[in-house]
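USER:
Try writing one entry.

ASSISTANT:
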Amino acid sequence: MKIDLNLFVVFDAIYCEGNITKAASVLNLSQPAVSHSLGKLRCYFDDALFVRQGNEMRPTPVAKNVIADVREALHQLRVCLVQSRQFEPMTSRKYFTLSLLGSLEATYLPLLVQSLIKDSPHINLKSSRRVRRSELENKLASGDIDLAIDTLVPVSNNILHTQLEQDQLVVVARKDHPAIAQNLDLQTYLKLDHILVSSRSSGPGLEDFELSRLGLHRKIALRCQHALTACRIIISSDKLLTLPQTAAIMYSEMLDITIFPMPVELPGLDVHLYWHTNVDKDPANKWLRNKMIMAAANK
């Protein structure tokens, strides 16, 4: 059975005021509108609910029996409305799910977590596997993910995004690589074996797509899911790895690897933060977006 929740607001007002005219004044409605709502309530409950005694409307036993539940329900609705416009990060235990391009997770997730430690200790984050571009809008619309961090991709007007930074691709190799002197030239880059880091089981990487536009092709000898795994393999092999510069610098601080500029000019790597228009004004999502933007700006 469908019922208009506004009828219970009228019910509470009549109960409080004991008079239809006064209830109408409190609700800023006409007296006929309040009487009409009372008529609907009487049909729903199959009870008079209020009986006229002089100038007052006295509640029936049924009305007395349900008033506490009605008021509690209205209170909860008001609380929900208030909370929908507010967000308290210090006390919230909300779960957020992020989708990050694999090579970006190690850079951006630690930054975000670090920024949350002091002022939102109970917030829970989940970094999911990168969502396919074809599924990005549906995943954001359904709430399966709250935010996505990826390179610049074509999206509809339902998806909003902002640039976090512009990175560039570089090449990582082990120190004292026997095939590389001081500089890495294009011929050597194309001749050596490469590791491709990708969450997908097949298909070219971004760098391969850009190389193919120049009529160039490299040999992928190994495909893996994580950049750290690739970097550890690099240390004990002659393979090369192409990474965003920010990630490469981070791994070079932990591992014995060398960074070289790309031997061919490729477009910059625009890193964007994505969210759905449905949550653009949601205080929790807006708060998390701002946290991520500030963390990226201060890294």
